[in-house]
Amino acid sequence: MTDVLQLLRNHRSIRKFTTEPIGDAMLQSIVEAGQAASTSSYIQAVSVVRVRQAKQRSAFAELAGGQPYIETAAEFLVFCADLHRNRNRVEAASDNHADYSWVEQFTAATVDVALFAQNVVIAAESLGLGCCYIGGIRNAPDRVTELLELPELVYPVFGLCLGYPDQNPDTKPRLPVASVLHQDRYLSPQVHKELLDQYDTNVKEYYIKRTKGKLSFTWSEQMAKQVQNQKRPFMESYLKKQGFMIK
Ligand SMILES: Cc1cc2nc3c(=O)[nH]c(=O)nc-3n(C[C@H](O)[C@H](O)[C@H](O)COP(=O)(O)O)c2cc1C
């Protein structure tokens, strides 16, 4: 296996960090690695806000539902989809109104952010750092917009904690390859069920081992729990307010 494959397969989220800082030069090269990712039609629709002030960090930790590692990580970055920059440039150059309110543009910008951020994570992990994405910041998108003074056509997709790991968790078992890599056509329901039943057993064993018996649930049980309540129903109106997804 190559070093890169080894690195990718060794990923696990890190939620406990040492106090060692990340140097500016290292942070810069990590962000440059993010920028090197492919970008839909060259739009480069990404802005990253580095949150440094302790007060801001505490506000983020709280609005994300009480996630203390946001405060203790060496760096906390907020990844935003950003079509504001593009619109301003187009309008300044042509005097024409530039319409960035289509669902397709929102999708392209969001995909850009995900590709950029995952490059950042891989680059960081290759340098011995650990990371944890923080989708919890979408609990309060209006507050994030206010804290970071985000203009129209910018929205926060997720945060990312970065730092030197102070824990060494096991990797979390993923779905069997056969259930995600379909051959010529989508898997038959019977084969799919057999694969997922086996996977559920593996995940349950993983949780029992990881928590010394305190937690014991399957992947399917976890997924069922997630859809019991409405998930951030305010996102649609928030995104429209920011100028996205109107058409
Ligand atoms: C977009 C996104 C948002 C996430 N948000 C959170 C979060 O708010 N808090 C957290 O502790 N982990 C968060 N995670 C981490 C996932 O829980 C984690 O990646 C998943 O359980 C798989 O575990 P692993 O990364 O250790 O392999 C997030 C991951 C992604 C991709």
Short description:
This protein has helices at 3-9, 24-35, 54-63, 69-72, 84-94, 103-126, 141-148, 177-180, 189-210, 219-226, 235-241, and strands at 46-51, 75-82, 130-134, 154-163. The chain has 247 residues and is α+β, with helices and mostly antiparallel strands.
Note the run of SSEs as H and E.
Answer: HHEHHEHHEHEHHHH
Order of strands across the biggest sheet? 1-2-4-3
Bound molecules: flavin mononucleotide
Task: Give me the number of helical elements.
Answer: 11
List keywords for this structure.
247 residues, alpha+beta, NADH Oxidase, 2 domains, four-stranded antiparallel beta sheet, 47% helix, globular, binds flavin mononucleotide
